[in-house]
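Priority: medium. Attachment 1 of 2:
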């Protein structure tokens, strides 16, 4: 496994591989790797000759300095995990490497970024688009892999890829959510939960799945209020938003059409913010 922190060096390695007509799969991450990340990497390596993983905690997508500071980082453990699977190249740049000067690019997502995560995390998706477009330009893979856990992020990256980065000819692949045994969606932030918060956090997916699986018994408004009030009845949990949205427009829907609709939730467990979603399909 090649570890590089520098764009020039990465280009040198990739150039050699691409000359041999190797296909390149790319998995961008912010590190603190868990089985969710590893599933993306395994899938990428099953579909490509070379797998590149980036580890970079991107400051421009954090709307709170405190959140950026407390974001978990453990490079040593990450590298250990990557060595045990089929990762060929790890790119771990410093902030100065990715942002040698301020990035003032503003992306227009036609409203996809005005709802849910975008509504509560001002500027988050613009920061995501800055780093993803920079990484796509640097790595220029055949395919790039993202988790459906970040449902809105996948929609925005697909839009970015189709509307801003078309010439790169990269296929964006969305991969299934990997969960803990008790149903909690895996996340680097889970390790920041204390014992009580961690135990209650499993009720986010359990409650959402329970009611969403019997959605026919409720109106959309009834389903929303049932899920929100039940999750909020736990001592450590507070729903920031729960919405049922159209998969393409991400706007709230009046009715559930399973193949076109997803339920999305953000919940605070103490000060830790967790997200999850449920596909009715
Ligand atoms: P992050 O390091 O949180 O930026 O995540 C890097 C990639 O891993 C993103 O595409 C995430 O959607 C994906 N990811 C994170 N958690 C999971 C999970 N539990 N299951 C599948 N993919 C995930």
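Attachment 2 of 2:
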């Amino acid at each position: 496994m090649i570890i590089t922190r520098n764009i020039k060096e990465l280009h040198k390695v990739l150039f050699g591989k691409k000359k041999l007509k190797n296909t390149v799969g790319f998995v961008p991450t912010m590190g603190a790797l868990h089985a969710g990340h590893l599933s993306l990497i395994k899938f990428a390596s099953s579909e490509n000759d070379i797998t590149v993983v980036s580890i970079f905690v991107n400051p421009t997508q954090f709307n709170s300095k405190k959140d950026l500071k407390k974001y978990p980082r453990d490079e040593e453990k990450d590298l250990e995990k990557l060595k045990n699977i089929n990762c060929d190249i790890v790119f771990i740049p410093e902030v100065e490497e990715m942002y040698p000067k301020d990035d003032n690019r503003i992306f227009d997502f036609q409203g996809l970024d005005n709802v849910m995560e975008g509504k509560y995390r001002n500027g988050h998706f613009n920061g995501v688009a800055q780093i993803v477009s920079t990484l796509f330009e640097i790595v220029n893979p055949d395919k790039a892999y993202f988790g459906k856990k970040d449902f809105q992020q996948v929609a925005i990256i697909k839009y970015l890829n189709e509307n801003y980065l078309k010439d790169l000819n990269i296929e964006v692949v969305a991969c299934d959510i990997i969960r803990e045994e008790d149903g909690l969606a895996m996340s680097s932030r889970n390790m920041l939960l204390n014992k009580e918060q961690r135990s209650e956090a499993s009720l986010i997916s359990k409650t959402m799945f329970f009611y969403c699986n019997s959605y026919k018994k409720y109106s959309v408004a009834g389903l929303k209020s049932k899920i929100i009030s039940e999750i909020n009845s736990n001592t450590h949990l507070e729903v920031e938003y729960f919405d049922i949205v159209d998969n393409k427009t991400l706007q709230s829907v009046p009715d559930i059409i399973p193949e076109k609709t997803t339920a999305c939730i953000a919940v605070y467990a103490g000060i830790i913010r967790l997200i999850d979603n449920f596909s009715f399909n």
